[in-house]
Design goal:
Number of strands: 22
Shape: globular
Distance between the termini: 18 Å
Helix content: under 10%
Low-confidence stretches: none
Strand content: over 45%
Number of helices: 1
CATH architecture: 6 Propeller
CATH topology: Neuraminidase
Strand order of the largest sheet: 2-3-4-5-9
CATH class: Mainly Beta
Order of helices and strands: EEEEEEEEEEEEEHEEEEEEEEE
Radius of gyration: 17 Å
Number of domains: 1
């Protein structure tokens, strides 16, 4: 694992990470609850490039960010959209959640405000869940993975047409039933889900905890199948939450800062991944 740089103080609680494909060496992140609706661009040394306010969005508990194609019917000129998941729910009391969608900004723009291009409003089909992991597939579908405050970690998925229809209608939808993931939550070992991402060709889903990264073949049917061995991270991060594929065989991680321990931008190569 390589440390690329210490995160800027403006990004003290980096809770998600997305890799720009249109602007090499640019990464997008955001803070956990307590910040305003803002996106942060950093470079490959974790230097802050700029902060963008998302007009029309609210920030209750932003937990993850993902880059993917803009939903059908969303007007945009950018090559991709950023999806920001406001779905944190530590007490499991929220009745609905929102995923905000904006066209990816150009890091060179002088105007650091972006309009909301759409949102996906959803609720769970069973009970309230705390979730910190969102991943948008290269085809436009998406998945949400629950954190693990209950004995079972669940994965919920929507296809690209369902995503586009939900965004266009801007109505509250109920997610389909979830798939049980073979990750047994254990908070003492840091085994609760804090982030997820698809590899560039969409054939593998990475799901991270504070201390591990799991890899599953995509699409997942009724029983998830591992694509690569579990990657053990240990206790190298203060509170690791962000994960994103940099390339097919490398991933980037970010962490919240805790006390005197600063979060950092890390590059990790896991055994067998991409091979």
């Amino acid at each position: 694992m390589d440390t690329l740089g210490v995160l800027p103080r403006a990004l003290d609680e980096s809770s998600g990470l997305a890799v720009s494909r249109a602007h090499p060496g640019v990464y997008w992140s955001h803070n956990d609850s307590g910040d305003r609706p803002r996106l942060y661009a950093i470079d490959d040394s974790a230097r802050l490039l700029g902060t963008w306010r998302v007009r029309g969005a609210h920030a209750v508990d932003w937990e993850d960010i993902s880059l993917g194609p803009c939903p059908g019917g969303v007007a945009h000129t950018a090559p991709a959209c950023l999806y920001v998941a406001d779905m944190g729910d530590n007490d499991r009391q929220r009745t609905n959640h929102e995923i905000y969608i904006v066209a990816e900004p150009d890091p060179g723009d002088s105007v650091h405000a972006v309009p909301l291009r759409g949102r996906l409003r959803f609720r769970y089909p069973d009970v309230a869940h705390d979730a910190e992991a969102l991943a948008v597939h290269p085809d436009g579908g998406l998945v949400v993975v629950t954190k693990g405050r209950t004995p079972t970690i669940l994965l919920y998925r929507l296809g690209k047409t369902e995503v586009a229809d939900a965004v266009a209608a801007d109505t509250l939808i109920t997610l389909p039933p979830g798939v049980v993931m073979p990750i047994k939550p254990n908070r003492m070992r840091g085994r609760v889900v804090t982030g997820a991402d698809f590899n560039p060709d969409g054939t593998v889903l990475a799901v991270r905890t504070y201390s591990e990264i799991y890899f599953y073949r995509w699409p997942i049917e009724d029983k998830p199948v591992e694509a690569y061995p579990t990657c053990f991270l240990g206790a190298l991060e203060p509170q690791g939450e962000g994960v994103a594929f940099e390339q097919t065989d490398t991933l980037l991680l970010t962490s919240e800062s805790v006390a005197v321990l600063r979060g950092a931008l890390l590059r990790v190569r896991c055994g067998g991944v991409g091979g």
